[in-house]
Structure formats: structure tokens, C-alpha cells
Amino acid sequence: MAMETYDEVYSKPEFYWGQEPNNLCKRAVKLIEAKGKVIDLGCGEGKDMIHFARNGFDAVGVDLSKPGLQKAEKWAEKEGLQVATVQANINEFNLTAMFDVVYSSGTLTYIVPTLRHDMFMNYKEHTNVGGFNVFNVFVEKPFIETAPDWGTDEYFYRSGDLLSFYWDWEIISFEEVIFDCNSSGVPHKHAMDVMIARKTK
């Protein structure tokens, strides 16, 4: 879905992606014992950021959509949770503070391919030793049709691209999954590479 579309869908009262956290977020919360500082890149309406905050993390959410961030902030306030939000384009946002977890679900597809190397190096450099990068990315498969709501500002990865940036980290888990999706109201499939990696030194 094109980035400019999110303001429209997030301005509606219902939660476009629902309020149940992503399975990757749930796995990360269970895995990571030290509940430190986490940044959610592309937090949208806040479902994963809220889950991190509920479980003791100091959570920061970044998203381009102001309506999405406002919805996330109101949700956090309603639950009595402290979160911080930043409005920014993923292609222009570099980490300047250190984090224990750098997390993103579905958003890294918007990073222009020529910027990927520098962006991932930035994420790695601003992860504390012992910390984690927890990501999933959409991968291109010739036997899966491109989703009907795929935007012109979205860019597929190839299988293994994500993993190649983390050859020097401990790979806690990595898998490629194919799943059904109904975004935009049209049933379709996606393929994703899903990774949890830990910085050891």
C-alpha cells in the first residue's frame, strides 16, 4: 500500500490492522528477558508498540502517518502506558540513540533498495551489545502474484537479502513463510523472510 494512503485508512475509527500484535512481536517479547528500550519502525496505529509497552519495554514508535501516531498515543494513554512517538519517513530516519531492540514488521519494504545497506548498518550500530534486531520483509516469489494494494513506493527483497546484512550477528531464528492476507478486502498471498538476530559484540 502506498505510504500516502495510510493517513486515510488510519483516520477511520476502526484499526486497519486490528489490535492484536504481530506474531513476531509476541515471539520477541517472550524471547527477550531484559525489557529494555525498543523502537518500532513503522508502528502504524501502535499494536506492536503497545504490546512491547504492556510487557515492560520502554517503547518508541516511528511512523510517517500522523493520524496513525495519534491513534497509537490515545490507545497508550487509555491503557496508562508511557510511549514516545516520532513522525518520520523511514528513508530519512536514522537512529541517533541506542536501543536494546530495533523492531519492524512490514515497513522495511519502503526502504529504497539503494539505501538499504546504510540503513541496516545504522540499525546495527545503534543496537546495544546483547540487543536484538527483529524484522520481517516481503520477498518476491515468481509463483505469488503481487498484492493488489502493493504501492509503487514498496520494494521487494529477495530471499536471504535480510540475512546477508547480519552475517556477523548471532541468528536466533530465521524462516521464510508464505501466508494469506486480506488487506484491501481482496484475498491474496505474501512471502516474508522473518529474522531475530542478536548483537554479540
Describe this structure in words.
This protein is α/β, with parallel strands linked by helices and 201 residues long. The protein has one domain: Rossmann fold. The protein has helices at residues 6-10, 23-31, 47-54, 66-79, 116-125, 161-164; strands at residues 37-41, 58-63, 83-87, 99-105, 127-138, 170-181, 188-198. The protein is globular and about 45 Å long. The chain starts with 5 loop residues before the first helix and ends with a strand. Residues 26-178 form the Tellurite resistance methyltransferase TehB-like domain. Pfam families: TehB. InterPro entries: SAM-dependent_MTases_sf (IPR029063), TehB-like_dom (IPR015985).
What is this structure, in a nutshell?
The protein is an alpha/beta fold and 201 residues long.
Rounded to an integer in angstroms, the radius of gyration calculated over CA atoms is 16 Å
* Model regions low in confidence, pLDDT < 50 over at least 5 residues: none
Alpha-carbon distance between the two ends: 37 Å
Q: What spatial form do the alpha-carbon principal axes imply?
A: globular
CATH class: Alpha Beta
How many individual domains?
1
Structure summary, number of beta strands: 7
Total helical segments = 6
User: How does the helix and strand content classify structurally?
Assistant: alpha/beta
N to C succession of SSEs: HHEHEHEEHEHEE
Keywords for this entry:
single chain; 201 residues; alpha/beta; Rossmann fold; seven-stranded mixed β-sheet; 6 helices; 25% helix; globular; SAM-dependent_MTases_sf; methyltransferase; methyltransferase activity; TehB-like_dom
